[in-house]
Amino acid sequence: MDGRVVVIDDSRSLREYTLEVLDRAGFQVFEASNGQTGLESVKKNEPDVVLLDIIMPGMSGMDVLKQLRKDKVLVSILLFTAQSSVSRRVEGLKAGADDYIVKPFQDEELIARVGSAARRTALEKNLVKLVDARTRDFVKKERQAVFGRMVQGIIHNINNPLMAVSGFAEIITIKLLKFIKFSEGRIDEDGTALLKDIMKNMEKVSSAADMTKSIVNALLDKSRDESIEYKREIDLNELIKREVEFLKADRGLKHTIKIDLDLNPSIMKISGIYTDFSQVTANLMKNAVDAMRNSPKKELGISTKHDSENIYILVKDTGEGVSPANLKRIFDPFFTTKACRDKKKNEETGGTGLGLYTSKLLLKSYHADISAKSYGTGSLFTISIPKTNVFTQRG
Ligand SMILES: Nc1ncnc2c1ncn2[C@@H]1O[C@H](COP(=O)(O)OP(=O)(O)OP(=O)(O)O)[C@@H](O)[C@H]1O
Ligand SMILES: [Mg+2]
Q: Which listed site, 50, 193, 201, 250, has its alpha carbon 20 to 30 Å from 129?
């Protein structure tokens, strides 16, 4: 039979007998003679089933049970109980045990109960994996779809009038130049000054139109990159520049936040799905911007570097920072400190608490990770990408 089992019992003879029976039945077995080492063994061996004696000197089986449930360890827990102790059994089941085995037991019964518990755990573990994968897929697809629709719509609406603005600005400038030439000697000084002033203003219109074009292009580039779903060569420095352009295109942001880029040109290109990395970078940048909402100093620093093992992307802000207690929880799904406040004033839009969780998930298949540090003056998030992901011609 399949499955890993930890037997925690202070009675040596019973422990050894149980191990024997389970080992013969094909389980992978581990043993512990008291509660404390039992917990350690569970942590180390990640079993599917724990067989637990309730009465033990020191840490009791009930304490071990409560601790495992408190730590949300995904494992089935079976209690060893005596025939007479009905109240203990009930107490144990209430505290989160899945089943119990009455001593003395028949070998077949032990094997059958442990086997069914192991199957239950395996199912549960698969379910967790499935939920993870579905969440990842769902969040990704949803964000892409929303983004795609948004960009296509915006570009469509902006491009035509924009072409008209820059086209007409050019025509007017050419005509103005002609007119200035034509009017030489025919109009007085005031007239000439006025024409020059009009000319200057036209230049401003042209340069504003050019700026808008570059924003539209940033959006176009991004939507094009985001639509490619397969692995390919990625220049992380370029990706960061694009994400920053995109961030800047957000109204109101450019002038309030100082963005410092320190991108090391010698970092290697990697092989990956573009959106996996653009989303993670965007999530970290968005968090940094959110964290600086009320900071007097608003500086976002993004840098890249590498050492012998990893390529790093560092995102640093001068925001409110993360408390030590929250630092342990920020990567948990649905953990957020961004409450919905005044929507009309658009003061706080509220977070889903999935940004960092999804980012970690997206990086998992690259064996890449994110770590967080917080100082009194802001936070530093570091993405580490193992160099095993460096792009080679053969993929
Ligand atoms: N740069 C940062 N500075 C301070 N706190 C941060 C920073 N980044 C993340 N956090 C904290 O971590 C929490 C979780 O972040 P996460 O990105 O997962 O979710 P969110 O930003 O709240 O919501 P969402 O990203 O889904 O809109 C945030 O609510 C915030 O408390
Ligand atoms: Mg976020």
A: 50
Give the number of the ligand closest to the Cα of residue 301.
Answer: 1
> Does residue 101 share a domain with residue 33?
yes
CA dist list (Å): 47 to 30, 38, 121, 285: 9, 11, 9, 39
Q: Which ligand is nearest to the CA of 292?
A: 1
Contacts 24+ apart (CB under 8 A), 332-337: 332/357, 333/135, 333/357
- 247 Cβ below 6 A of ligand 1: no
**Domain-located, residue 368:** yes
Considering the domain architecture, whether residues 256 and 374 belong to the same structural domain is answered as yes
Q: Tell me the residue range of the domain where 178 lies.
A: 140-227
**Mean of pLDDT values over 282-300:** 93
- Residue matched to tokens 């094909």: 26
Most confident of 100-114, 132-146, 178-192: 100-114
Tell me, using a 6 A CB cutoff, whether residue 356 lines ligand 1: yes
* 149 located within any domain: yes
- The answer to whether residue 325 is domain-embedded is yes
How high is the pLDDT of residue 89? 81
Boundary (domain end) residue, out of 196, 227, 258: 227
